[in-house]
Amino acid sequence: MTEQANNGAAAQEEQGAQFSLQRIYVRDVSFEAPKSPEIFRQEWNPSVALDLNTKQKSLEGDFHEVVLTLSVTVKTGEEVAFIAEVQQAGIFLIKGLEPQAMSHTLGAFCPNILFPYAREALDSLVTRGSFPALMLAPVNFDALYAQEMARMQQGGEAPATAH
């Protein structure tokens, strides 16, 4: 029996890091068109402001929730045409990573997986509000993560790791 247990532990060590997506879901959505229907009668000359945020938390065992939030405010002239927000979340099983690799996985790799789902959900909200599709450009989460790590090092903060 001890031999089997030792073989099982050795097999797990040989496997190294593990990553698997368990679930993708919409955590929260919001859409507001405060100037409708008047906004539809104006010339459509939009300016788009996008706010992007990620957060993560540890769940039981080696499971982690990552939430990607996309908030968009679209104005035409000085008038707010609409405000839309999507919180796209995922549950990931992540094992056997060093702290720095875990931080990168949670801060860049997982949001990269979630982004197409969040973009589609946001686009669906906007078109249901009778506005033209947004079609947000792809986001380089690796670059954003690197910028955040550089900012934290300059400020003397410790990088965020999974808790």
TrEMBL record:
Membrane-spanning intervals of the chain: none
The molecular function terms of the Gene Ontology recorded here are: unfolded protein binding
Where is the protein found, in the record's own terms?
Cytoplasm
A single GO cellular-component term from the record reads:
cytoplasm
Pfam families in the cross-refs:
SecB
List the InterPro entries.
Answer: SecB, SecB-like_sf
Set out the biological process GO terms recorded for this chain's protein.
protein folding; protein tetramerization; protein transport
SUPFAM superfamilies with a match to the protein in the record: SecB-like
Query: What are the record keywords, sorted?
Result: Chaperone, Cytoplasm, Protein transport, Translocation, Transport
**UniProt similarity note:** Belongs to the SecB family.
Please give the PANTHER family that the UniProt record associates with this protein.
PROTEIN-EXPORT PROTEIN SECB (PTHR36918:SF1), PTHR36918
HAMAP family to which the protein is assigned, alphabetical: SecB (MF_00821)
NCBIfam families, A to Z:
PRK05751.1-4, secB
Function per UniProt: One of the proteins required for the normal export of preproteins out of the cell cytoplasm. It is a molecular chaperone that binds to a subset of precursor proteins, maintaining them in a translocation-competent state. It also specifically binds to its receptor SecA.
Assembly, in brief, is:
Homotetramer, a dimer of dimers. One homotetramer interacts with 1 SecA dimer.
Supply the name of the protein. Protein-export protein SecB
Source organism per entry reads Stutzerimonas zhaodongensis
